[in-house]
Amino acid sequence: MASWDPGQYAKFAGPRLRxxxxxxxxxxxxxxxxxxxxxxxxxxxxxxxxxxxPGLALAGIDNSPDMLAVAGKALPDVDFRLGxxxxxxxxxxxxxxxxxxxxxxxxxxxxxxxALMAGLPPGGVLAVQMPxxxxxxxxxxxxxxxxxPRWASAFSGVAGIRPVDxxxxxxxxxxxxxxxEVDAWATDYVHAxxxxxxxxxVLEWVKxxxxxxxxxxxxxxxxxAFLAAYRAALTEAxxxxxxxxxxxxxxRVFFVACR
Length: 259
Known about the structure:
Blueprint: H1 6-9, H2 13-25, E1 34-38, H3 44-52, E2 57-62, H4 65-74, E3 79-82, E4 96-100, H5 109-119, E5 125-131, H6 137-146, H7 149-152, H8 167-176, E6 181-193, H9 201-207, H10 212-215, H11 220-237, E7 246-258
Enzyme class: transferase
EC number: 2.1.1.144
GO molecular function: trans-aconitate 2-methyltransferase activity
């Protein structure tokens, strides 16, 4: 299991939370009995659910004890548990299932999504956001640098970046699994990242997510060399603007499916 660093992830808390807020805003107003946040991390999205549905019984599942510790301190009334979101059974008994930027980490997220949809009670809702940035320079260059002879053997066991489908693909998938209605869409966010002295803004962003599995298998010296090579590639792909900030386009896929 790759490690999560709550501090690194929180460096861009505002831009990372905006898609989650957009997802929660699209949830239908219904009298849900119980909600669950799959891949809840530090509880930021769970807090949005608490604000939107104040009286709702909430639970959160994540595979990072460090993230769950942060979440538990922020929302002591929520049932946060350590678990694998690849197990659809963990969502049993919940009629609102929400997941923000988590399912793309699974080896077969489509199978899990189908099972979650099929297991919802009538009137239940499955709402998910996943990044679809695997073709962007940030992720393409990461794969290219990782494939260089110097590091390729070290990364032989790293799954790397798993692709996410188009919104229409998920609409078809969930309809086949029993959804009566699916609202699916994509949004392109353009984040203006602040300068990062002795680093690169996009590198600092990716260090909190896609870079984690790679850095986990390198020692300190090898990690420093790998980051230097990746940073050089990013500097060319994402030049600084006149004010020093770097524009970082990021596409995300959403869907809200009703049983």
